[in-house]
Design brief:
The complex is a heterodimer of chains A (about 270) and B (about 260). Chain A is an all-alpha fold. Chain A has twelve helices and no strands. Chain A has a single domain, classed as ABC transporter involved in vitamin B12 uptake, BtuC (Orthogonal Bundle). In chain A, helix 10 packs parallel to helix 12. Chain B has a single domain, classed as Rossmann fold. In chain B, about 35% of the residues lie in helices and about 25% in strands. Chain B has a six-stranded mixed sheet with strand order 6-7-8-3-9-10, with helices on both faces. In chain B, strand 9 and strand 10 form a beta hairpin. The longest helix of chain B has 14 residues. The C terminus of chain B is likely disordered. The chains are: A mainly alpha (about 270), B alpha/beta (about 260).
Amino acid sequence: MIEALSFEFIQHALIAGILVSFAAGIIGSLIVVNRMVFLAGGIAHASYGGIGLAVFFGLPIFLGASVFAVGAALLIASLTLRKRHRIDTFIGLIWAVGMAIGVIFIDLTPGYNVDMMSYLFGSILAVSTEDLYFMAALLAVILFVMTFWYRDILAVSYDSEYAALRGVHVRFFYTLILILAALTVVVSIKVVGLILVIAMLTIPVYIAEKLSHSLFSMMFLSGLIATLFTLVGLWFSYTYNLTSGASIILISAASLGLFLLLYKGK
Amino acid sequence: MFVVRIENLSFAYENDLILEDINLTVEEKDFLAIIGPNGGGKSTLLKLILGMLKPKKGSIRVLGKAASKNPSHIGYVPQNTNVNTDFPIKVIEVVLMGHVGAKNPLFGYGKDEIVCAMGALAQVGMQEFAQSKIGSLSGGQRQRVMIARALCAHPKILILDEPTSSIDIKGQKEIYELLKLLNQSITIVVVSHDISVILEYANKAAHINRRLSYHDISDKKETFHTHNEGEHFCEVELLQMLGSENYNTNEDETIKWKESK
């Protein structure tokens, strides 16, 4: 195991795992307390459309997926603010249409033979240096936003009607949360893949919520727990030669089961 | 001085007329109870006063200004404080949400804000719970915290939407006793179904069912207060009395009504 650490791709995997885990812990907390889990799932799957387009036009995958996911997030944000009671229908629609666009554009790409499975289920062992920069930059942006707008985001998340009365710009912060969620989903695709990303955004958060008295401690704890799951999952997948994304999710789910069992006993 | 002055107000969602030709004045240190059937427009009227909705016709002035111009003078306690109880937030953080300051610190909370929030919690007798998670409180305690949040902005008028729905009888009484105490310095407007309790504390009542019928009940209370302590009026009869259009707070008839009972 120790000699594995000397491989560059393992080092990259570990750094990526930690960066993405903290981003997912913080943004996952916001997604859960704002009840946007289904919404985040929609954005995650829709981003496949961006991957397809990026492959077709020969653009960087992260760029294509990010632009497409942010576009989906903005679309959902404007629909939520105008047609709230129909929002689940629209999310389902965006979810499926995004994936369909991705599949069609990959069909249209001549001679394309890269394993698309890696985007669906993650490829943490193939993280490039550029990917790491992208992840680090996103985490920096998230930390910046949460530091300076913590109380506004807290107010909007806890009681948006009251926040609006107090002059907090609810639409702005709601949209900001969605954009950060879209970008977090995109970087998480590298680690666990877009189908499994929703588990990474919710399982550590669910455990942290039970142990936290404030949103801040929930975010911090979620980040730590997500990191722990990612590292243990990686070790597990390395040792038994299993898919890394699925290993991380199953380690997380098993830990959640164990946690709930022990927590209930208290 | 008028705290709230509403003149010829009408409001409609799409084509459904919700409020029609409403006239209402609330004076300083009034305790106004707004009652009426569900869907009668009670919450809509509150939202208009708060400036969350714009009137279709007529005007609303709060402390002499348009409703949306001075939110910091209005303290608002929303309906349904039992939602989102899983949310990881401390009592003190909820109260701090209500603070309106000249400028916020770059991050975190300022010392003066925390002092102010603790003061508001002390006013409602909840200061020892400042560090508790909001979800661990009872319904009545949570309602007190929401009142503290509204008080944090030092409002001149406190507006409460169904403050005692989903609170047990003892908690309800405590909330109204607290409001009575606050009423010594603040104007209070409360929407409620508990009209019998309202009569114990309010000095004015407005019944809203699209139109508004207004009653000064401060004198009526004396007429009725021959009941035993703690005994409430029959709510159906009260609603009929306060709600019917052709019933004009006629003192003679009121007494007749009481005798025939």
